[in-house]
Amino acid sequence: MNAEAESLLIPTTYSRIIARVLALQEKNLSRLLWGTNLPTSVLLPGDETHINVRQQMRIVENAQDIMGSSEFGLEFGRQLHPSSHGPLGYLVLSSPDLKTALESFAEYLPMRIPFSKMTVTKDAKWLYCSLELIIEPTDTVRQILQECFAFIMQGVIEAVLGSPLNEGLIKLQHARPQSAEKYQDYLHSPVLFGQGANVYQIPIRLSNTPNAAGDSDSYALAQIQCQELLNKIPMKKVSATDQVRCLLLANPLGLLGEVEIASSMFVSKRTLARRLKREGTSIRAINEKLRSELATRHLRDKALSIESIALILGYNDAAAFRKAFRRWYAKTPSQYRQELDHIG
């Protein structure tokens, strides 16, 4: 595992779920934490400790050894309901539709599970949710993490749809395991092994399926809670691009300029520009990308007027927002909404 695993932090929520899956008693909790130098108190309810990813991966390895079964990843994964992810889960459960839920989940997932990166793309037939691991775990742990990804996606998707999804397609990188036949007892869509990437595919026609439990007020509150989580992530643990994005999300858009952003990161404007250039971006590009993403998300909420969205995104007037939106998507916000109506 690479050195970055020492600096990435993850809540102990997932370790507590593991302990429950193994049905461990308090006197046996130390077995799960062997080799981590962590006290057993981190597994008790109410503990808010964050552990590093190296410790988390050791806990996963220990759990596999304790269970002594190749089905540990499946047993653990099916316990990962949206509510397991704190405010991120609430954001999903209150999202207006499936695509928004998946995009919101992808945006904030690294703040909850920092060794992962999820992207959402589409073509004429499928909506693709892809997982990339930014650590180098053992083969055993990699398989477990990939199994968990499939369950996490299944939980998010089916929570919005309100029913099982049987017509999706799950592609996993690890080779076909001995327990392959068991997957159909846990996962509702077909699974392919030995693939080039970890991808959960959903039929594109389902992407705008309304969330029956969606609530705009709850969604807005969950967004605020997720943004508060961003502030709790030590800035030195992530890239300069992520730091800028965190700062922009944690403040009203348009409030922070380049000087204020650099100052908040304890560097000069010139130093920040150099770091972002090495990462192939700039403050302006990050800000534009964030605004364009949030614009399409807010336009799905019919309760928000174009003028209100412009204000939320930090524009002085709706005309400036319309001009920017046309630059991003070659159409006006109103045209985008009309297309949504036709798709729906």
Structure description:
The chain folds into three domains: 3-69; 82-206, no CATH class; 241-343, Arc Repressor Mutant, subunit A (Orthogonal Bundle). The chain is of the alpha+beta class and 344 residues long. 51% of the residues lie in helices and 9% in strands. A hairpin with a 3-residue loop joins strand 3 (116-122) and strand 4. Helix 5 (87-94) packs antiparallel against helix 6 (98-112) and helix 5 runs antiparallel to helix 9 (216-232).
Which properties best describe this structure?
alpha+beta, 9% strand, 344 residues, Arc Repressor Mutant, subunit A, 5-stranded mixed sheet
- Main sheet overview: 5 strands, mixed
Which strand-content bin applies to the residues? 5-15%
Strand order of the largest sheet: 3-4-7-5-6
Rg, rounded, reads 21 Å
Domain count: the total is 3
- Give me the strand/helix succession: EHHEHHHHEEHEHEEHHHHHHHH
The average pLDDT value, as a whole number, equals 86
Helix content: 40-55%
Instruction: Report the end-to-end length measured between terminal Cα atoms.
Output: 45 Å
Give the number of DSSP strands. 7
Number of helices: 16
Q: Which secondary-structure class do the elements indicate?
A: alpha+beta
The low-confidence parts are none
Shape summary: globular
Spell out the blueprint of helices and strands.
Layout: E1 9-11, H1 13-21, H2 29-32, E2 50-52, H3 53-67, H4 72-77, H5 87-94, H6 98-112, E3 116-122, E4 126-133, H7 139-161, E5 169-171, H8 183-186, E6 191-192, E7 198-203, H9 216-232, H10 240-249, H11 258-264, H12 269-278, H13 283-299, H14 306-312, H15 318-329, H16 333-343
